[in-house]
Amino acid sequence: MQLFGHPRQGASHDIPARVDEFVKRTEGILGSAEVVIREHTLVPFYLPLRREIDAEQAISAIRAGGLGGIKARLGILASGFGAANPLKACMVCVKVDGLDRGVSSWHLDHQWPGAWICLLHDAVLQYGLGKVNAEGRFHWYLPQDIAFAEASKTPIDGSAMQVLRKLTACACGLGRLPQGFHFDQTTLAQTYQSRMIDLGLASPSGRLRSARFAEALASICEPLSRLHGMEILAGVASGDTGAFSRLMQERRSTPHPLKHLIFVTLLFESWQAFTSSYQQELGNAPFVKDETNTGKATVLEDQDHSRSQSVAEDVRQGMSVTRAAEAAGVSVATAIVWSAAAGVPLSRRPKKLTPRVRAQAVASLKRGHDKGVVASLVGVSIQTITFLLRSEPGLRSAWNAARLARARKAARTAWTRAARRFHSPMQQVLRQREPAAFAWLYRNDRQWLQQFTVETLLKPRPTNNAHIDWNERDRVLSASIEIEARNLVQTKGRRLKLSDLCNAVPQLKALFSKIRKLPLTRAAVASALSHRS
Ligand SMILES: [Zn+2]
Questions:
Q1: Distance 432 CA to ligand 1 centre (A)
Q2: The last residue of a domain, from among 242, 275, 308
Q3: Measured in angstroms, how far is the CA atom of residue 122 from the centroid of ligand 1?
Q4: pLDDT at 349
Q5: 481 and 445, same domain (yes or no)
Q6: pLDDT tens-digit map of 410-451
Q7: Does some domain include residue 502?
Q8: Could you point out which of 24, 306, 387, 456 has its C-alpha 20 to 30 Å from the C-alpha of 134?
Q9: Ligand 1 centroid vs 144 CA: distance in angstroms?
Q10: Structural domain that includes position 67
Q11: Ligand 1: distance of its center to the CA of 141 in Å?
Q12: How far apart are the CA of 519 and the centre of ligand 1, in A?
């Protein structure tokens, strides 16, 4: 496979490998390695539920090396959902694409694990038979070239459709989260638990109400278990809820994202409802005073409130935290957090944090660096940094403010820079180019975004050749590629490389960055490169 510089590695459609090599060989026309991974693979689906540091390791492994171990590291192999993600397509989309552009293409939102509906046409997706067996696995196909099978062997009724729609929307939501977003596992578990208490699936103290929970879970898993690749859920549908109740507990190993999505589908009205509950939970981390709004203290249960006060008071009077914790019957960590929330400074007995290292870490956090960055910078674990953030009065809000400022600057810069690249930029185009920046600005900096749109995007500019007929271009270019490819195969006597085509058809090189607008050209290139002499 010439694009990846290796006969087999790389070309897997779901989790690729050797992406750096791919970017080098395509001269970056599809974007940097990060962009290729983010916009053209299923990798973004697996990262938000991993820790930041695991995600970074996975990305660099995908950029550099072979596939070995990556699927295991992302938790795909052990999931029970099968390691091969089938290629999926909406038959209406295939037809419409064919009529519109002459060829059909794969839609990323159809490929996420758990996505089984085309949200545009409300049609159940079918899965491709050509690619999933071992023999066809490393060939490239377009939807028009392969045979499809029905997702479910039995008919899908109205209530099952509803489950599928919701799960699909959740899968797209997870796959399309802003780059670099990672769920905090503790907050996530709290989000689930609060909602389960609200729904009566758990008692007010958080104890699982097994019978009700099993019943609710079965109602979701029964229709899902009839889908291709989801058969493992048949067990859950008949009452094995263990795998799911374990999700509520904070654990080191992260389950397959699909299990989370099924849980979200079960508990929440929609993906949006889930993410806003999560945000709320994140803002209301228990026992930590909200320092940005002095006076608006987080609500504690009465009993905990008085206990936390007495712990803080004991420590203020000079009692050791360990003894204060013992007296109140809570863990030492809780006592430290309570004291910090009450603004009582602690005399610390650092384990790995010497005063110098500590000062370094605090300074770095105040500049808004990520926990993982700070941890590796000063050489301690991420848990230590997390603990530092919780135990140093005022540090978390300073850190949050600095991170907000950094994120804002990054998003605004990305957006402005993208706009400058176009002669007459349009918001839709910029959105496609910078989805993460757009998502961030839309959510957090909307006023600036609107102002930018009014002042920069909508301002009329002098135009020349603004109207380009892409269809005509596509027809001309694809035709000349077909002709040149035939000549080249005869003269070279070997399989063609992309560079052969670019040299023979200079316009191809010039327009390669626009290849998404040129479906016929793309098909002509694919066919020319796969043709044996
Ligand atoms: Zn469709």
A1: 19
A2: 275
A3: 7
A4: 40
A5: no
A6: 889 888 888 877 666 677 777 877 888 888 888 888 888 888
A7: yes
A8: 24
A9: 14
A10: 19-74
A11: 18
A12: 18
| Cα of 128 from ligand 1 centre, angstroms | 15
Residues 6+ away with beta carbon under 8 Å from 171 = 45, 112, 113, 114, 115, 258, 261
pLDDT of 171 strictly over 90: yes
pLDDT of residue 479: 79
Domains held by the chain: number: 5
Which of 321, 345, 369 is the last residue before a domain boundary? 345
Please tell me whether residues 294 and 266 are part of one structural domain.
Answer: no
Q: What is the ipTM of this complex?
A: 0.98
Expressed in angstroms and rounded, the spacing between residue 399 Cα and the centre of ligand 1 is: 44
Q: How confident is residue 294, by pLDDT bands cut at 50, 70 and 90? A: very low
Identify whether 442 is part of a domain. yes
Task: Tell me the two tokens of residue 119.
Answer: 């949200």
- What's the gap in Å between 108 CA and the centre of ligand 1? 12
> How many angstroms is it from 109 CA to the middle of ligand 1?
10
* Digit-coded pLDDT (tens) for 17-51: 667 777 676 666 667 777 777 777 888 888 888 88
Residues 383-420: tens digit of each pLDDT? 888 888 988 888 999 999 988 888 888 889 888 888 87
| Long-range pairs, 95-101, Cβ under 8 A, ≥24 | 97/143, 97/519, 98/144, 101/474, 101/519, 101/520
* Cα 140 to ligand 1 centroid, rounded to whole Å: 21
For ligand 1, the distance from its centroid to the CA atom of residue 164, given in whole angstroms, is: 15
User: With 70 as the cut, is the pLDDT of residue 300 above it?
Assistant: no
Distance 96 CA to ligand 1 centre (A): 8
Q: Note whether 99 and 223 are same-domain residues.
A: yes
Bridge-partner residues for 150, per DSSP?
126
Q: Distance between CA atoms of 327 and 92, rounded to whole angstroms?
A: 67
Distance 19 CA to ligand 1 centre (A): 29
Distance CA 371, CA 9 (A): 34
Hey, which bits of 132-247 come out as E strands? Answer: 148-150
Position 524 in a domain: yes
Same domain, 237 and 315: no
Neighbours of ion ligand 1 (CB under 5 A): 90, 92-93, 118, 120-121
Query: Residue 393: inside a domain, yes or no?
Result: no
